[in-house]
Each structure stands twice: as C-alpha cells, then as structure tokens.
Predict the 3D structure of the following.
Amino acid sequence: MKVLLSWLREFAPIEGDPHELADHMSDLGMAVEATQILNSLDGVVVARVADLRPHPKADRIQLVDVEIDNGEPMQVCCGAFNMSVGDLIPFATIGTVMPDGMEIAQRKMRGEMSNGMCCSAAELGLGADHDGIMILPDNLETGAPLMQELGLVGDVLWDLEINPNRPDAMSIAGVARDLAARLNVPFQIPERSVTPTGSDQGLASIEIADGDLCPRFTGRVLTGVSVGESPLWMQMRLTLLGMRPINSVVDVSNYVMLELGTPNHTYDLSLLPNGHIGVRRATAGEKITTLDDQERTLQSNDGVIVNEADEPIGIAGVMGGASTEISDSTNSVLLELACWEPESIARTSQRLGLRSEASARFERGTDWQISVTAVERFCDLLNEITPGGIEVVGEVLDVAGTTRDTISVPVRTSRVSMLLGREFSSEEIRDLLTPIGFGVEPTDDGDAQLVTIPSFRPDTETETDVAEEIARHYGYGRLGTTVPRSPDAGRLSPEQKLRRVIRQIMTGAGLIEAMPNPFLAPGDINRAGLVVEEPVRLLNPLAVEESVLRPSLLPGLLAAVSYNYSHRNTGVELFETGAVFEVSDDSSALPVESEHLGALISDADAFAATSLLKALGSALKLKFDLTNTDGLPGLHPTRGARINLGDTEVGSVGEIDPAVLRNYEIEDRCAWLSIRLDLVIEAAISAQGTPYQPVSTFPSSDVDLAFVVAEEVQASAIETTLRDAAGEELQSLRLFDVFRSEQLDEGARSLAFSLRLQANDKTMTDEEVGTVRQRCIEAVESTHQATLRA
Amino acid sequence: MSVYEQIAEAQAAAISEIEKTSDLESLKAVEPMLFGKKSTLGGLKRLMAEVDAEERATVGQALNQAQEAVREAHASARDTFESASRRVQLEAERLDLTESLQAPARGHLHLVTQTMERLEDVFVGMGFTVSEGPQAETDWYNFEALNLPAAHPARSMFDTLYLDLGERTEIGDGEGGEATNILLRTHTSPVQVRVMESAAPPIYTVCPGRVFRRDTADASHMPVFHQIEGLVVDRGISLSDLAGTLNEFTAAYFGGAISSRLRPSYFPFTEPSAEFDITCVICEGAGCQTCQRTGWIELGGCGMVHPNVLANCGVDSEEWTGFAFGFGIDRLALMRYGIKDLRDMYTNDVRFLKQF
Ligand SMILES: [Zn+2]
C-alpha cells in the first residue's frame, strides 16, 4: 500500500521529517519499504509535441519536435511511439539530473541530434509505467516546470507493507488514523454529502439471498453522469499510488477505494432491467463474461450479482460483468458499495487468477460501517469533477445481510501489564486505544475496562488482541527488556551429545559432511541397487525428480560422490547423518523416520569402512559384530557384511556394487558404511555406564599364534574363540597378520593373532602362560578345523 | 731415570697416543694403552713397592696427577670426536620441511551443522534444552494446533508438500479423531506443540531442524532448508521477556555490537506478533546496500504464544503465558561467510565443503 503525505493530511495534520514519519509507521507495524520525497525535478518542463517523423537510420527510435515557451521546436530522439502531435509531455531539458542520477546531455543518435529527453512516468519517479511517454492533461501550461504544475513538489510517497490482519491500513484514512494517534494529533474523516434530488422510487432495488456472503450492500442512483477525463490532481494521486487513470467514473471508484478502503463498482442503470440487483451463490457451471471479455465458469461457492432475470452480471467482489459496463453513452449509474465474506473472495479470486486491489481488500475484510460515508464520498467526488455536476437521486439504498455484532471485551489492566511486561494504568490504556477508534468504558470491576472493537478491525476479538493494539501504539521498543531464567540448567540430551561425538569421529577420520537432497527420483532407488517396494511418495512434488522421500542415505551420497567425480574431485570421503523414511506397517501411523549415518569413501576398499566402524566402536565402547553376507542391497556381492550389536542388526558395511558404481560413473572402488544412528546411540548410552577396570601392576606376557584357517571361517569367529578360551587374563587381542600363499592348503589362509596376558593379582608364571596358550590353540583347532602354523 | 721421570715419560707417551687418534674409533683402540693395569702408567704402579715408605705418598700423588692428565686429554679428545660425529650425523639427516607431501585428512562438518551447533550452544548457555521431532507430520501438528484451521487464509503463506501414502494419506489423529493430511513440516513449530503436549511448563527449549516448502530452488530459496525456533512457557512471561531474550541471544551469537528490535507483525500462532530485526552485521547499523540503508536486517518472526495454541496443547493460558520465535539457519550460514547463493551449500562439492 502506497500513501501520499498530502492525502494523509486531508485526515490529520501530520507534520514531521519524512524519514521520522517512516520510522513511526514501521514501528506501528506498517513496515516502510521505500520513502520517496518528490523533489522539484528542476529542468523537467511541460512540452508540446509539434511534429513526429521517422528516424532516417533507425527503426526503433523516432524523431520528435517538442515546443516549450513557444520558441523554436527542438528535435529529440525518442524510443517510444505512444504520443501524437499536440500531446503535452514531460520533457527533460539539457542539464537535468534525473531521479536516478543520470544527467541529460545533448547527443547524437545515429546521426541525428537529440536535445533532451521525453520522459515516462517511471523515469520521473511518478509511477510504475515504463511503457511509454507520460501524456499530460491538456490544461497545463507549456514550458512550466512539471512538478510545480502538478502540485507535487515536497510531497512524500511511502510504500508500506501491510500485514493480513490490518484491513484498516489498506486505506489512506486508516494509515492516517494510526499515524495521527502516534503523533497525538486529531484525526477526522471529513463529512461530505451531496443533496439528493427527487426520489429513487422504483429506480433501483437490491435483494440479498445469502446474508453470509454479503453482510451489507449499499447502493445509490446517480444521473447526469458523463464519462470523461478526471482532473490532473486525481490522475496524479492514482498514478503515484500505482493505479492507471482510466476515466472519470473509474478513477473516482478507485480513488474512494484507496482513500477509505472500500472497493466499489458501477453499473449502467439503463442496462439493468427495472434497476434490480440480487446477490446469491453461484450454481456450479454457471457462466459469465467479465469486464475483460473473458468467459468465466463459476463454482458453487462463488458469489454472484444477478439481474432481475437471475442472470449473473458480476462476480461478487472480484470483477464486474461486461453486460452492464458503463460506457461513453452512460447517463445513469447504480453505485454498488458492498461488503463480502472474505474467505469466498479469497477462494474465487485465487481460483480465477483475478487478484486485484479490490480483492486484496475484501480478503482482509472491509469495514461495513463506513459504507454510507463511502457512498457519499463517491457522489461528492464525481459531482465535483463532472463538468456541470451530477444528480444524486433519492436516499442511499442500504440492505443488510448477516452483519457481525459489535464486539465488546473486558480488558484487565493487570493482565495487559503482565503480558507486555510493563505496568500500565487504566487511563494509559484508554488513552492509547481511544484515538484508534476503540471504545473504552470503565466497569464495576476496577481492574477491567470494557473495550468496544471498531468495525474496521475484524481481526481483533479478544483481550490478547487488544493487548497487541496497546503494545503497538505504546511502541514495542519502549517496553522493557527482561530475561526470564529457566529453573533448570540448559543442556543437550545424552542422545544429542553422542550425535555430536559421532560426527566428530567422522571428521576426525577425515570425512566431510555432505547434505544431499532428501528427495529422490523414483528410479534413484534402483539405480543405487536398493529394492524398496513402497517408498514414501510426495502428493504434490515440484518435479518427478523430487517425488520420493529417501529410504536410505546411499542414493544421495552416491550422487554427491558422482558430482565430485564429474568435477575432477576424486578420492572423496563423505558422510551424512539424517532421517530416512519408510511407510509404516501401522496404517494409522506417520511414516517411520529413523536416523541413519552413512559414509561413502571413494578410491578405498571395504577395510576403510570397517576401520571407521572400529573407530566408532572404540569411542562409543560398543562391540560391533560383523557377519559376511553376500548380496546385501547396493553392496558388492562378495564384499559386504551385516553389522550387529548383540542380537540387533544396526547396519551394513562393505564396498559398493561395481554395477551401481557404473550407474553413477564412479570409476574407483567405494567403501560404504551405513548404521542406524538412533539404535547405536541408544546402545552407546547404556555402554557409558561400564565400570572402570584398575590397571594391573604385574608384568604381562605376549603370545603370538598363527593359524591356517579355511577362507569360509571369519577372522572374527577365531577372535571370539580365542577370547573365550583365553579367559580373564586376556588384556588385549589383535589380528596382526593375514597371509595367503600357495604353500598353504587350497582355500585357506593364515591368520596371526597377538594376545597379551596379564593377571591383576600376581605375576603369571611361564607355566600358567603356557596353559592359556595351549587352551587357545586347542579351542581354535577344534572349533574351526584350523591348524597352528609352526 | 728417576721414578718421576718415568712417570712423566709414560704420561707424555699416553698423551701422544691420544693426539694421534682422529676419531672415536681410533680413540677407543688406544684406550688399553692409557688406562688399566696393562697401560704404561698402570704398570708404573708397581714402582710404589720399590720406593721408600716416606716417598711413597709423593710418588703416588705424581702417578695420580699423571693419570688425571691422561684422563683429561682423553675426555677432551672424546668430546671433540663426539661432537664432530654428531655434526656429521645431523648433517646427514637434514630435512627440507617444505617437502612434505600430504597432510593427514581433516574432515569438515557441513556449514549448516556448524551453524546449528553454534546456535544450540548459545541457547544451552542461556538455559534452554534442545527438542526434536518428526519431519513428516500431521496437519494437526503443523497447522491446526497452531491456530491455522483448514480454511485459514494464512495457510497460503506456506507452500506445503503433502505425502501420498495411498489409502493412508489421511491419518486419523486430528481433533476428535478426524482424518488429517500427512505433510512435510513447513516449520519446526510442530515440535513446540509436541513439547507442550508432553511436558508441563516451565518450558525453555529450542527446536532446530529441517523443514520443507514447495519452493523452486533459487539463490535465496530451497525446498529443503533449516530453522531454529524457541519456546518459553512459564508463569508471568511477557513481551518484554521476549525482547530481552532475543537481545541476549543476539549479543551472544553476533557479538556485542549487534542488537535486536521488535516490530509489530502478524502470525496466526502468536498474539502480539512481531518481526525481529538485528543490527545490520555488514555495516553495524551505519546503513549499507545489504540493509537498504536502514541499518537493520530482518531475522525472523516471534510473538507471545496465541492463547488458542496454548489451549490446543492443553496449557491453561490464564496460568501460563509464553513466547516463541523462529528464524532460518541457512541464511545465518550464508551471512557469516558472505555466500551469495544458497544452492552452493547443497551441491556437496568438496571444494566448497572443505572451506569451513
Ligand atoms: Zn547495513
């Protein structure tokens, strides 16, 4: 919403520095996006177009002779073609500094002299119109300084951002009311009425069939209307506020809407049989041709205006119909000034793509009590600008639908003070609310006052809503700043701390955290070698490439590595923690979201991933068990293992299937680790309580044992057997060598383990060490058909 | 030759042997000739038996002095040879330290994670806990409980992504067991609702996390981004408490030169509502292009929790009041490093990720 200082001043004597006034408006919740002080634009004058002719060497510019001061015409080159000989236009003479800082100089364009510039409204900062040169009204004096002639010098234009809960601020009067209250100056909507002539008896009638759709319909009959051009001052105000002047009737209509926030519409009364107008909901499929000559199909919730024959002649609050449109021959007009159900207007205008200044106001809810004032204002203005005046026939036609009751709400001074954190007195509250139209009456309860909500604030209903108005007008910035303290200490949960630890372990191991898109294309799941029968799909994806929620971190990380490979970044080590989604078995539940950790290390074999897992296990005091498993989804068919914590499967580790790597054009081996982070964190929290082991002070002995074992036997199985057999004196166990050779049995390899034995209470004798050694050998040989390598 | 002459001669001979050596090895080789019973001086010990008792002490002293002289000469030679040999060895070990081939790989947390952790740490320091919740949510938690019933016009402020769960697309956990749509949360506010439902006040918590909007990716929008929201519910919580808390956060996170202010605004879930601005971090309030010469930049929205929201979460709004605030994490990350395009954070190019 744009507002103009001179216009605001018609409602309140607002004075002050434009930027300070802007700060006040922002502080009142009407954020100022731009402040424009209209300066005198020295050098820009009113000029008459004396001649137009083509440029001999250029198609896109023409030569214009302009006349100022009845002197010799001056030639300029101009890129616009919208003016005719005789038009008055704004002309920037040589030396003029334009609002954007450009200085106009004499120059040659393709061989022709240009002695200035013909200006568009946008170039002058007088509107958004870039399309052509601004055509000025005929009654201006040629050669006169433009801005003086337009009466704009020193005026201020502000562009405000109005929140959806402030329908009142969608008008000059509403902004003036708010600002006047802040500046402590009086605000008044001037009384303007036109003495009616005769009686409207039988000329027009209004019937509301759906009172919810139309809480109030106010109309009036005007005759002696002649459609012409509106005066310059009105055209300028409309232009500055972003509307294009059309003709006197349309301009008055828009002017009243901008000034009082009340959109309105005019019908050619002669095209309305018996002057009858009805309001009802449309029936689905009903059709109407609107003012823009488009045929529109209606739905059952749309509101329509109908004629006596019950045929639609307008879409309520959205756009009028072509059949009753006013024209140059119009003499009698029926003015409509109605209130509409905001939800209905929002739905209809959105569906038909007909959002307008009017629908923006109706959607927020217009003031149903200002209707008569607005009708009077319309008549007054049209009378004023129509040569010879108009006649207003009879009284205002005023039909009520279901009007909202005036709301009064008790507002407790103590409650307001508590909510805002400052002690207010009841007088202060009264003095803050009264200037913005709220009624404030004392009650028998000394603490509470009865506050009556004005009709132009439909958003305000409760004590809390009123507290916001009090805060707004007192000033948010003037309230105190206090800091409440939680009775408890701030902290991360154990889960949140461990998640951070795990990320640190990943970065400590040299991995980089990636954040791939959690949305996948349906084919991405197969492409990554995964099989998911029913992934979680989006109902309204932006694109099919982003229509599935990831069931695994693998596709995203593969895509990330692939992206890097395509940019010559090889040897990439990435990890991610995040939610993956699957459809729940329970049909009444949300999708199952579980937190995963995925790590993808390119140019590395599976052991890069298992050692990462070992690092995790050692930091979290968890023992991950691996079970070599062929054909895990996405994994290399013979280089993959399931990961268990006790009986719970928590993930998989290995290398990516070469076929999958080909799909992603990754030419190196890739190690992959995937774990259920939520389960691992849960286990790690229980493991955190493991009691401390005192360090033995007695000497330790090392025993190295190498076994020849069949390839089918997992090294971890030998390890488990050794651990069990060695007993409590085993301090540590480590696989330190793996050896394959033709000298060994076919299908077998040698695994060498180092055991450190140490007792807590004595020095172990050679004999005792020997016993343990023997026990270990026998256990491994008998359990795994292994043989000790000499 | 007198005893003393013999001693002097033996001393001279020993020292001469030492002087002939050139390194530790040759010095070692002559050691038997210098010390011990088999050395010349050692051999002279037998003279002690041949001299008179009264002269024995003098001869002994002479012998000791001679031996001491030899020891000193030896030690001095050894020191010389040792330091020479050390010099040779050290020279042989000389390194050009700029020849190092590779640094141990250092990993990097994603910029968003770093920013999120930094924010969490500030709020934990201020006495807050950190709450989390699901990303796929019901319409109730994301909208209705937050005073945004189905027909509310402000719903259009959120371009929502809905899930297609076949026959389960509507799941019955709306008010009164009605079916509600399943969607990807458009803000982390549903976590606030879940916190209020599950724990009695006082509540001091922040809800960071991933949120979703049906937005086409461009320099300042992503369909997937991150937010942090804060919620305080306690007795007597006021708008001034909100202003003070945001001030404290702003100073703690951005530094003392940056402060915050509140401007009236509108959100369905708060009343009164406010935008919260911070001093422009580029110009520190002087006015620049980034802040459109206002000295302020808009950071997020906030307000007093709407009584309807408290009621929806089973909190008595007469006894308890609260405030909530929220802002984007991604934008803070961009601001800190002057990154121009939000999409750069999500291409996962290691050349980008390694910079943080
Ligand atoms: Zn700035």
